[in-house]
Amino acid sequence: MPLVRKRRAEAGSPSPSASSDSESEVAPTSRNTQKTPQRRRRREDSSEDEVVYSGNEDGGTQGDGIGQDQMVKKMVRLALASEYARQPIRRVEIGLKVLGTHGRQSRVVFDEAQRQLRDKFGMEMIELPIKEKVTISQRRAAQKVDKASASSKAWILTSILPPKYHTNTSILLPPKVPTSTIESTYTALYTFIISVISLSGGALPEAKLERYLKRTNADQYTPIDKTEKLLARSCKEGYLVKVKDSSSGEEIIEYMVGPRGKVEIGDDGVSGLVKTVYGNNAVEDLDRRIQRSLGIDDDRRRKKNVALDGTDGASSGVKDPPARSKRRDNERDEEENPVGSTAES
């Protein structure tokens, strides 16, 4: 009987060796199932690493020919988009949106983009002049700077087409957004304001500008918007500069021509507007009077003195008067100078 019970116990319960064998068979399978997802993860990680590396090669981050070509295309697109929005192309934006970590290729990319803009679009990037320091506070702040920058580090697009095409409306059309009528009207308004300021010596008090705008029935409203908003937009886009000076104890507000206005309109645009207004009734010495009102004669005289004796005119008694002194002279000569009183006539 004990033998039978012992056999039944052996038959009913597995032997220690069998249980150990079964455990040994189950353990490898569980280990294999644990190793399988780890291997899959390693494969996926390695495949992702390969994709990132191949993407860097396609993007040309090593500075090869393909990468440089992409940077040139980005530069051209940035220039066109900035000009469409009437915003300057700043050096900081070029570094962030075009060059990235390849700042050493800035000159090569800029020159190639300039070539493509000239060949395909008939335009080129022109650097904007530095804003003038007119108030006492601005001059003091400039003196505190150790080394003043001689560059504005900002550019705009200008047309390189021959001058005879500039006034041809069938070739150079105004933008169609929002409408061509609104854009052409806005261009005419800021060209007129810039011309009045330039012919008044380069600076014009706010009260006098309002008087000129009132004579043209634009002191409160314009075909685009309110006059106040129009002037604010012109200042924001760089056509005008609003200067507030309270150094004398009384706040004086003046308007000057901004960097974009000097490049886009300039003396040639002002002269063309005056000649168009006078038409066939222009006097014989109109060109000389325009140059006098714009201060071109003073600039030529100063350059001549520099070429002769290496001075800027101070030793020979010829001085380059500031904008306010030029404005006083123009106010005295308004009666004999028809150009200076164009807005009032």
Question: Any overview of this molecule?
Answer:
There is one protein chain. The chain is mainly alpha-helical. 58% of the residues lie in helices and 8% in strands. It contains 14 helices and six strands. α3 crosses α4 (91-99). The longest helix has 44 residues, at 16-59. The model is unreliable at 9-13, 22-30, 46-65, 312-322 and 334-345 (pLDDT under 50).
Residue share in β-strands = 5-15%
Structural class: mainly alpha
Number of helices: 14
Give the terminus-to-terminus CA distance.
139 Å
Ranges where pLDDT stays below 50 over 5 or more residues in a row are: 9-13, 22-30, 46-65, 312-322, 334-345
Mean pLDDT across all amino acids: 75
| Topology order in helix (H) and strand (E) letters | HHHEHHEHEHEHHEEHHHHH
Helices and strands, with pairings:
Elements: H1 2-12, H2 16-59, H3 65-84, E1 89-90, H4 91-99, H5 106-121, E2 123-127, H6 136-144, E3 154-159, H7 180-199, E4 203-205, H8 206-215, H9 227-236, E5 240-245, E6 252-257, H10 259-264, H11 266-278, H12 286-294, H13 296-309, H14 323-332
Antiparallel strand pairs: 1-3, 2-3, 4-6, 5-6
Helix pairs in contact: 3-4, 3-5, 7-11, 11-12
